[in-house]
## 1
Amino acid sequence: MALKLFSFWRSIATFRVRIALNLKGIVPDEIVEVDLLKGKQREDAFRAVNPQMLIPALVEDGGPVMFQSMAILEYLEETHPQPPLLPRDPKGRARVRGLCQIAISDAHPMSVPRVRNYLTQVLKLDPPALLNWVRHWQTEALQAYETHLTNGSGSGRYCHGDAITLADICLVGQAVGSGFFDVDIKAYPAAARIVDTCLQHEAIAKAHPLKQPGAPASVSH
Ligand SMILES: N[C@@H](CCC(=O)N[C@@H](CS)C(=O)NCC(=O)O)C(=O)O
């Protein structure tokens, strides 16, 4: 199996995939950097890989290319079932997938480069207004997580019971991404406890954006 991951240190969507790969003990043969800060995702070379011009993208054995982090996470779960990252029961699976989508479908898209660029370049938002925009959606997501994780509907050591699931992967990504905009997870104690537990796990810690090649020591916006 030859595995190629298109990645960038700052990408939260790729962070999710890196965590799943690490948890399942899969080591990509090649990591291709797509520098989002230089706009490399919009150049022809990467556009040919993913017409949506987004990372992550994953290519196994020459193709076809896999795109969209949730689809990639599900693919990894199906092809490498151990350790399982979804619970066995359908209701549990629905809860975990729902928790994933809070970040993947609803919050994260509000702060990606293409949206921030449109807000500033086309709609002429100034930097403080842009920051308010991003923080608003990050905060909404964290509040929703906090309620879900506090209400005794299945959380344990992790988001769903005592084993890591896809929900934890997405929550950690949400927390780290929010941190890039100075939205502090500590204001959400149930979520913060789980994120802290997750970040102590080696597979998750070493996937952290700031541990990737080319990453700065810290990020502010
Ligand atoms: N829903 C997609 C989102 C992918 C996405 O937005 N990736 C960001 C990096 S985290 C990206 O490539 N952004 C480039 C841009 O916005 O121009 C997924 O989960 O894979």
## 2
Amino acid sequence: MFRWRSPRLTALRRTPAAKHLLPLLFCPHQVGPCEVSTPPLHAPFSTRIVGDEPVLVRDFIRSALYDPKHGYFSQRSGSVGVLESSIKFNKLEGRKDYIKQLDKIYRQSDISWFTPVELFKPWYAHGIAEAIMRTANFSVPLKIYEIGGGSGTCAKGIMDYMKLNAPERVYNSMTYISVEISPSLAKIQRETVGEVLSHSSKFRVECRDATDRSGWGDCQEQPCWVIMLEVLDNLPHDLIYAENQISPWMEVWIEKQNDRETLTELYKPLEDPLIKNCLEIMNSANKQASPSSVRLIADTLWSKIFPRPRRCWLPTGCLKLLEVVHDALPKMSLIASDFSYLPDVRIPGERAPLVSTKKDGRSSDYNSYLDAKVCNS
Ligand SMILES: C[S@@+](CC[C@H](N)C(=O)[O-])C[C@H]1O[C@@H](n2cnc3c(N)ncnc32)[C@H](O)[C@@H]1O
């Protein structure tokens, strides 16, 4: 199976930040409240992420991905794969040929993953533009926000399509605002869209964190479109841990050990409001009838005889972004694409991320998120 070569699975890699990692095993074992757990991990670069105070897992991931100096997405090249030329789909003879072509692309490039908007360019962006054209209310000027626009391929594709297919007044009065956290990707987006001169006056990049409500200013009552492609699943996640099947969830923090080179997990009682809120939403989605008292006794006994620690990843970054955008743009129409399934994940826990690296044209996956190395700048 071309696990990393299928467009769908490729973009699934939720933590592409972990492109440069150390292969280390991770075996969670039982700990009590606030005890330090997990085997020590020697990760000389990731230790830079954690200072003297412990940090929540989401802050560790945010730093690994978006730190302006060392974060994965702050690298100028390669953080979002860009195809040099579009795939000629009309020359392909079916799925087998497509898979062969993808295989060739991945072998030739040092990029770990390409997203659908890149692999299917320009058609993917044109499809989104056509969907907007069919449903937008053109009595008001068209306003599109794209969050996490990567290399600008989607923005350019949509604007190209509008220029060719929308009524002239719609194209002339449209605005396309990209909200991008990475300064290097923001620059690439300006270059990509700037290839068409007439797009430039309609396009701007706001280089900021879209999850920060203050960056959006006052609430905007006008209708608009918000596009997020492969963004929600890349946002920082939190991790919660329970000692066994019935013990309460604890929030996971990361701290540096005295040797300054080892990162370990630290468990604290649930207090963080974002984690609590996210857990409540996830629980209400999977609400089952409360277990009977017989069932509770059986579970308690079972957890004493065969205690099994539990780990669960929570999409706290996604929750925060959706809340902020909903508050700032209450009349938005949202177009988001992401993945509902990850293949062969090695990192333990429910909804765990896939952490991978690529060397000499081959991908490999890792066992611990704590190994994420930040870039040497
Ligand atoms: C996996 S890339 C996807 C890029 C592009 N949408 C695509 O499909 O090719 C994630 C993008 O989201 C951006 N991003 C992540 N978190 C963000 C945030 N909080 N605010 C704004 N942009 C963010 C990244 O810098 C990057 O451009």
